[in-house]
Amino acid sequence: MTTQRNDATPLADFFPVVIIGAGPSGIAAATLLGQYGVECLVLDRHETVYPLPRAVHADDEVYRILARLGIGDEFAAHRRPAHGLRLIDPNMRVLSEIPRNIEPSANGYPQMNMFDQPELEGLLRANLKRYPQITVHGNVEVTSITQPQPGRVRVTFLDRLRGGEYSVHANYVLGCDGANSPTRAAIGAHMYGLPFTQDWLVIDVNTDADLNQWEGCHQLCNPQRAGTYMRVSETRYRWEFQLVDGETVADYQSLADVEPLIRPWLADTPIDVLKLVRVTAYTFRAQVASRWRDHNVFILGDAAHLTPPFVGQGMAAGLRDAMNLVWKLVGVLDGSLSDSVLDTYEQERKLHAASMILMAVSVGTAMTGGGRIGDLIRRFVFPRLQNLRMPGTRVSAADGVAPGLRSSELVIKSRTPGGLAGTLCPNPILVEGLRFDDIVGNRFALITSSSLTDAQREELSSRGAAVIETGAGSDLDHWLSAGRVSAAIVRPDRAVMQAGRNTQAICDAMPRFTPANTSAPADA
Which one, out of 119, 186, 216, 329, has a CA that is 20 to 30 A from the CA of 504? Predict the structure, then answer.
């Protein structure tokens, strides 16, 4: 079982990896390391899961990541499906609707899923106990991160449980320590971004009453006071409203205070059947860190980027960071990958995160912008929103597909426009109810519509790769055909590294990736 340090048991003085921060990004990174059998220490200022709800939305890609972490079944039991996004005017009339399918997408899961973050983090923490290589140590404050010699990082922290200051050493440190990240400061990075700063009120309510609203996210497009409504679970609802000049969260501390804001969604529901869970204020920012790595120290999640919540991609970005970085780190620690692949983490993720932030800011600005331009956007652009193409993709906003990764040492794009490299491969059911992810596990994979020779199979196996030969007319066969290729290398994070028509050339390009444990995790 995972060692959860709630006593005075001494810590080891060295771990291959130390993670600072036990939020979703940090626990995801620790879980992936545990799946590969890599020892890891997680340090967090809280002793248990942070109890207040924050993130509430997971798309199909995030659901796929959660399944990869081993909690797919548990998440299925806790999530609530949603039908998409509606943009509404101050009179509650629908300006535009972007539907989301409640059936599995190409990623293998529904496109829009609502959840309670403390509940989700509880599932992630419980799942982490399956990995004896992971030690979680809470109730600490990290005070120093230094690199005294090449390949070695020293982390110093105050231990509130045992008292006093302690240090541990690591090969690598991952800073998943939030918007005010000490790790980011330690590597000399700063946040920069768009001049988008808004103060919003967040209201969480519990009730057994059914508000009888459309089961999706409502974005209120009102330059006087924009807002958001969504049903998070069977009994919990959330509203978010932009604070106007002169207002603070202190003005909204009771149901009577918030009733004028939420009344349009309550209809005839009396206010006294609602229970106010919390009211808080958040400042929405759109920022990216100037650098994400200094030698053997990396930053992930909110430490590296801050996304306004208008498209529900804040937590998603941090989970993508963990998926992108951990297998590369494992390969370097194992010696099967060169240290240079670690440069691809920032190269690939930074522009991707910035693209998603820009999309969120665009939606937020359109919701809240005043004047003639704002009116024109709401009147003419919103009704056509689902047909607009997203930057870096061949799909529309209605498809819910994130942009692809930029070129790097591990994303090798052809000169043909619209290639597969950098995009996610599908996750169809292949045999006996098992999806692609279940079969491939944490390995590289070659997907091919060509028949391989025994020599090709043996060489791919020696490099640690799985081989998936597509059947004629199968989902993966159609995917290769649509990309005009016969073979593709899929990385452990499911991004396509390289694809082409020359199957032998693609086989030859397969990296050697041979950690001790690359099997697929079964759901707990």
Answer: 329
pLDDT-based confidence at residue 392 (cuts at 50, 70, 90): very low
> Over the chain, what is the mean pLDDT?
89
**Rounded to 5, what percent of the chain is helix, strand, coil?**
30, 30, 40
Q: Residue 183 in contact with residue 299, Cβ under 8 Å?
A: yes
User: Of all helices (H) and strands (E), which one includes residue 448?
Assistant: strand 445-448
Q: Which two tokens stand for residue 335?
A: 């010696």
Domains of the chain: 12-79+114-191+287-358 (3.50.50.60), 404-524 (3.40.30)
pLDDT given for residue 76 in this prediction? 96
14-20 and 165-175 as β-strands: parallel, antiparallel, unpaired? parallel
Dihedral, CA of residue 288, residue 174, residue 43 and residue 119, to nearest 10: 60
Length of the chain: 524
Identity of the residue numbered 421: A
Whether residue 336 contacts residue 170, with contact meaning beta carbons closer than 8 Å, is answered with no
pLDDT score, position 520: 57
Q: How confident is the model at residue 446 (pLDDT cuts 50, 70, 90)?
A: very high
Q: What are phi and psi of 134, to 5 degrees?
A: -105, 130
Global confidence as pTM: 0.92
Q: CA dihedral defined by 444, 482, 415, 61, rounded to 10 degrees? A: -50
